[in-house]
Specification:
Blueprint (H helix, E strand, L loop, with lengths): L1 H38 L6 H19 L3 H24 L8 H4 L2 H26 L4 E2 L9 E4 L2 E4 H23 L1 H11 L1 H6 L4 H27 L1 E2 L5 H14 L4 H18 L5 H4 L1 H13 L13
Antiparallel strand pairs: 1-4, 2-3
Helix pairs in contact: 1-6, 1-7, 1-9, 1-10, 1-11, 2-3, 2-9, 2-10, 3-9, 6-7, 6-9, 7-9, 10-11, 10-13
Main location: membrane
Membrane topology: Multi-pass membrane protein
InterPro entries: ABC_transp_permease (IPR001851), BCAA_transport_permease (IPR052157)
């Protein structure tokens, strides 16, 4: 009986760990999904926004030493700026024309995808040249590793912050998309960009706003994970970025609820898989789920559009 209780507690503990990891993937995946919904292209530089958000937080701590909540606000502001810059450098040069043929051009979509990939590689390499490839430590006073006992379970304060931050951002995003004029415009551009242009919506402004919102969420998730793990490094955005991309594909490319659910499922699967395989092998879970999705659910689990993944 005691052994059974131990396994029950261990299972719930793993589920909590997987939920926290899945929510991090979800915050990044939402940025992927928002941008894909508006531009119909994948932003492969989004993982580097996650990384830059962590370093922006570290810089703010080292220079200003603000309270923890202020660090999150400063990183959110940095994420907004990074999103605007990313759109201006990597995406806007390919939006010179707004006719239907240009909007549906696969060549332009592929060029935009490669542009974001190039920005991703350049940013990562420049950060390695500037700060080095080694891990940078978060100051002890800002670490969120304090264990909180919930009966037999233990949850770190950093995981609590991940839960609260994710829930707050999800609620605010839903309010923004369904209760504001900006959200209505974002959904209109996502449904029919050319039609939105004809009814007077400033599509360029909406695209910039979408990049800013998605990048804000990615940057904040980066510093939250940094405060929880205690270390950040230039390559830290690659793996979460890939997992978030897999969640977006599983969710159907343009479905925010689908991306969130898929990201949580991915995080739970990774956490539970460590009971059967080593940590290194558990990294293959996301690729396996991606392969299954592409083979058996070519439009994603929650996809609605006709276009196949």
């Amino acid at each position: 009986m005691h052994m059974l209780d131990f396994f029950d507690v261990f299972l719930v503990q793993q589920l909590l760990n997987g939920l926290a990891q899945g929510l991090v993937y979800a915050l990044i995946a939402i940025g992927f999904t928002l941008i894909f919904g508006v531009l119909n292209v994948v932003n492969f530089a989004h993982g580097e926004i996650y990384m830059l958000g962590a370093f922006a937080g570290l810089l703010a701590i080292q220079v200003l030493a603000p309270p923890g909540f202020a660090v999150l606000l400063l990183v959110a502001a940095a994420g907004l700026v990074l999103g605007v810059l990313l759109e201006r450098v990597a995406f806007r040069p390919f939006r010179r024309f707004n006719d239907e043929a240009s909007l549906k051009s696969k060549a332009l979509r592929e060029a935009t995808l490669l542009s974001s990939l190039a920005i991703s590689i350049i940013t990562r390499e420049l950060m390695q040249l500037y700060v080095g490839a080694d891990m940078q430590s978060i100051p002890q006073a800002y670490l969120l590793m304090t264990p909180i006992q919930l009966g037999p379970l233990s949850i770190a304060s950093g995981q609590v912050l991940i839960f609260v931050t994710a829930l707050l951002m999800f609620v605010l995003l839903q309010w923004l998309l369904f209760r504001t004029r900006l959200g209505l415009s974002i959904r209109a551009v996502s449904n029919n960009r050319l039609g939105a242009l004809h009814v007077g919506i400033n599509v360029n402004h909406i695209i910039i706003a979408t990049f800013a919102i998605g990048s804000l969420m990615g940057a904040v998730s980066g510093i939250v994970v940094g405060l929880y793990s205690g270390n950040i490094f230039p390559q830290m955005g690659f793996s979460p970025g890939i997992k978030a991309f897999v969640a977006m594909v599983m969710g159907g490319l343009d479905s925010i609820p689908g991306a969130v659910i898929s990201a949580i499922v991915l995080g739970l699967c990774e956490a539970l898989s460590t009971d059967f395989v080593s940590q290194g092998w558990s990294e293959l879970i996301s690729y396996g789920l991606l392969l299954i999705t592409l083979l058996y659910f070519p439009r994603g689990l929650f996809g609605k559009k006709v276009e196949r993944v």
